[in-house]
Write a structure and sequence with these properties.
The protein is an alpha/beta fold. It folds into 2 domains: about 130 residues, Aspartate/ornithine carbamoyltransferase (Rossmann fold, 3-Layer(aba) Sandwich); about 150 residues, Aspartate/ornithine carbamoyltransferase (Rossmann fold, 3-Layer(aba) Sandwich). Helices cover about 40% and strands about 15% of the residues. The protein is built from 10 helices and 9 strands. The protein has a 5-stranded parallel beta sheet with strand order 7-6-5-8-9. Strands 2-1-3-4 form a 4-stranded parallel beta sheet, sandwiched between helices. Strand 3, helix 4 and strand 4 form a beta-alpha-beta unit. Helix 1 crosses helix 10. The two termini are about 20 Å apart. The structure holds N-carbamoyl-L-aspartate. N-carbamoyl-L-aspartate binds next to helix 2 and helix 6. The site of N-carbamoyl-L-aspartate has 11 residues, from helix 2 and helix 6.
């Protein structure tokens, strides 16, 4: 892969995706060794630039970069000059002087990572921009599903919840479909966009989605209240009753051997009940672990134009 930047899934072809997934495997094998590092990015500088709060994605990128032996700096956005009114453009000009080879960006505005990528020779990785894209999440999701279903073609994933505001829904559905997986959306009518591709079935009733679509995995999304100006449904309790994985639904899914996935952070009692986290086909912690390997693969595969 001779790309400078990693900004979305739409612009990747199937071969590039498979190459990134294959390349992540030896990185994952490394995690069970006593020495978990390889020298691939030794001497390279990786800068984390997160304009939105994040715990798992930021630390996952930090661990990934460190396991590749890069020097990692996390630019503390909330306490930086940004809060004093500095524009992203001026921040990047300042950061250029630090000679980063890779900049990992999360921003509330769709398209901001792409704008930064045009401004710098450093490789820019999109760690989530607005409701647009979250391509490394998509890659780790595809990797996690492929571990369970090495032939992904024809498998079925039901993405459930706040599709409308979710960059994860957009990127993960795109990668899965490029790999031949069938995707359907389920959620309240107000949160499942009507403009979604006509070949993605759209359900608003849980039982109907399960019986008609017959998913191999249910992928739960958090309700992104921070992206809603007004509530899109009456209450968390009602959402849980209509769409959440309750104890009873968990028993049904267990009977079918259905996997459960979630990008985190989870809201217990809303999209899932506590028992989901002890379910043997719940893949949430595998997703977190695989996130490091997938991000190592992305960092390793990019070609910064910095020297
Ligand atoms: C997601 C995100 O930030 O888009 N989380 C993540 O990256 N782990 C999903 C979410 O915030 O609900």
């Amino acid at each position: 892969m001779a790309r400078k930047d990693f900004l979305d899934i739409v612009s990747l072809d199937r071969e590039e995706i498979i190459q990134l997934l294959d390349q992540a495997e030896p990185f994952k094998d490394l995690f069970t060794r006593s020495v978990k590092k390889v020298p691939a990015l030794k001497g390279k500088a990786v800068l984390m630039l997160f304009y939105e709060p994040s715990t798992r994605t930021l630390s996952s990128f930090e661990v990934a970069a460190k396991r590749l032996s890069a020097d990692v700096t996390t630019f503390d956005v909330p306490s930086s000059s940004v809060t004093k009114g500095e524009s992203v453009r001026d921040t990047i000009d300042t950061l250029q002087a630090m000679r980063a080879d890779y900049i990992v960006v999360r921003h509330g505005l769709s398209g901001q990572p792409a704008a930064i990528a045009r401004q710098t020779g450093a490789s820019v990785i999109n760690a989530g921009d607005g409701a647009h894209a979250h391509p490394t999440q998509a890659l780790l999701d595809a990797f996690t599903l492929r571990e369970k279903f090495p032939e992904m073609e024809g498998k079925r994933v039901l993405i459930t919840g706040d599709i409308l505001h979710s960059r994860v829904a957009r990127s993960t559905s795109t990668i899965l479909r490029k790999l031949g997986v069938k995707v359907a959306f389920l959620g309240p009518g107000s949160l499942v966009p009507k403009t979604a591709s006509p070949d993605i079935p759209r359900f608003t009733n849980y039982d109907q989605a399960i019986s008609e679509f017959g998913p191999d995995a249910v992928y739960l999304l958090r309700i992104q209240k921070e992206r809603m100006a007004a509530p899109f449904f009456p209450s968390d309790r009602e959402y849980h009753n209509l769409y959440g994985i309750t104890d009873e639904r968990l028993r049904q899914l267990a009977g079918e051997g259905t996997y459960i996935m979630h990008p985190g952070p989870i809201n217990r009692g809303v999209e899932l009940c506590d028992a989901v986290l002890d379910y043997d086909r719940c893949l949430i912690s595998q997703q977190v672990e695989n996130g490091i390997a997938a991000r190592m693969s992305v960092l390793y595969g990019l070609k910064p134009q910095t020297s």
